[in-house]
Every structure is written in structure tokens, then in C-alpha cells.
Amino acid sequence: MLGLNYFFLLPLCLFFVGFGGILFNRRSIIAIIICIELLLLAVNIQLSFSSFIFDDILGYIFSLFVLSIAAAESAIGLSILVGYYKVRGNISVETINLIKG
């Protein structure tokens, strides 16, 4: 049987992989969005594990809220990128910094 430490190790590793992807990948916006989704997935797994271990439904409820926010963030972010690509012709972090106003 696996100990409780292993259940908390998987979300921690996923969170640091997503955080490292955001820090070290500064060229591709799509990869940054995927890393943000990985961060939110790690939080969902952690909430589910904690809810299972403590026999509480509150973690599952928060997990559903985080999933809905992650889906909305993905849809809005990708639609903005598609619109930006239609106007500019490329998607890169360097050119997006020019539209800050």
C-alpha cells in the first residue's frame, strides 16, 4: 500500500513542471497556456486527494469550480490568440508585448 506522501507527491511534481514551463518558456504563448492548465490540473488532483483522505466532499466541489474556471480560461485565451493571429500573422511573446498600450 502506498503511503500518504506518494499521494501528495504527484500533484507537487505536476505543479512544479507547470511552473517551470511558465518560467523557462518565454517564446510560445500556447505552451504557456498549457502550463497554466497543468498548474490547475495539479491543484485539482490535490483537492481530490485531500477530499478522499479526509472523507469530505468540499474538495470535490472546489475541484469542479477550478475545472470550470480552467475551461473558461482556455476558451477565452485561445479565442484571443486566434483573433490576434488573424490580425498580425504570427503569435510570439515579443510582439504581444507591443500592444500593452
Index terms:
Helix Hairpins, 101 residues, mainly alpha, 4 helices
How would you explain this protein's 3D organization?
It is a single chain. Helix 1 runs antiparallel to helix 2 and helix 2 runs antiparallel to helix 3. 80% of the residues lie in helices and 0% in strands. It has one domain: Orthogonal Bundle (Helix Hairpins), CATH 1.10.287. With 101 residues, it is mainly α. It is built from 4 helices and no strands.
Structural class: mainly alpha
Question: Architecture, according to CATH?
Answer: Orthogonal Bundle
State Rg. 17 Å
Oligomeric category: single chain
The fraction of residues in strands falls at under 5%
Low-confidence parts lasting 5 or more residues at pLDDT below 50?
none
Q: In the CATH hierarchy, what is the class?
A: Mainly Alpha
Helix content: over 70%
Distance between the termini: 56 Å
- Separate helix tally: 4
Quantity of strands, as a count: 0
Kindly give the count of domains: 1
What is the N-to-C succession of helices and strands? HHHH
Q: Could you say which overall geometry the principal axes of the C-alpha atoms support?
A: elongated
**Largest beta sheet, briefly?**
none
Question: What's the overall average pLDDT, rounded?
Answer: 86
Query: CATH topology, what is it called?
Result: Helix Hairpins
